[in-house]
Amino acid sequence: MAYADKVVLVTGGSRGIGEGCVRVFADAGAKVAFCSRAEKPGRSLEAKINLRHPGAAFYQTCDMSRVEQVERLVDETVKRFGRLDCLINNAGTHPGHRPIDDFSVQELRDLIELNLVGVFAACKRALPHLRKTKGSIINISSLVGQMGQIHATPYVATKGAVTALTKALAIDEAANDVRVNSVSPGNIWTPLWQSAVDQAPDPVKCKADGDAAQLMGRMGTIEEAGKLCLFLAAEATFTTGVDHILSGGAELAYGRKTRK
Length: 260
What we know:
The protein is α/β, with parallel strands linked by helices. It has one domain: NAD(P)-binding Rossmann-like Domain (Rossmann fold, 3-Layer(aba) Sandwich). Helix content is 49%, strand content 13%. The chain has a seven-stranded parallel sheet with strand order 3-2-1-4-5-6-7, with helices on both faces. It is globular.
């Protein structure tokens, strides 16, 4: 798949699925703007991409829960590259697992600002440019937005909202030839998963349990996530309003549901 001379903006692009998207799109010939809160890993990835593809990567520090920073990110991307063909809303976070009793209302509000309002703000700012190029938006949701997840009510709520926002925006933007899709990953091997394994009482068992949750017997890779996003941007020209599950079959077949 090629995406030569196109411009993509990836939020939360310095590691995990966002990093996978940055690498895959750069290899496909695109100019890639990306952001994160932490500047050091962002600058490091920018340098690595530009060493392989000179001038292809542009990094900017951005807190996606701050609307003014989101708007500046979009504006700087277009200023630097002259256009925008694809927006990948990947930035977000997953709080630690706790029952609802242990989450405050303010924690929910803070998570909504990052996981949902940031997506809305980026779409709103990017759309005038995407309408010119007849581009697309790809929102990274989550498999648990459909399935639910134990002790994760705030996170599940925000990701369910991202999926719903995707479908509603696809309806509105069809008249402008802008496609809007979402990707719902299951277990993808990311630094977040690595951290969970490292902190587990039995790291080997934790990793094995994570792999065993998929029919395919392993977790997905960030490159596989990036390739799906590239397909949606470059090839899936008759696809809009669709949530694409990237799970290795984790949601299929019966499994034990009770903890008794």
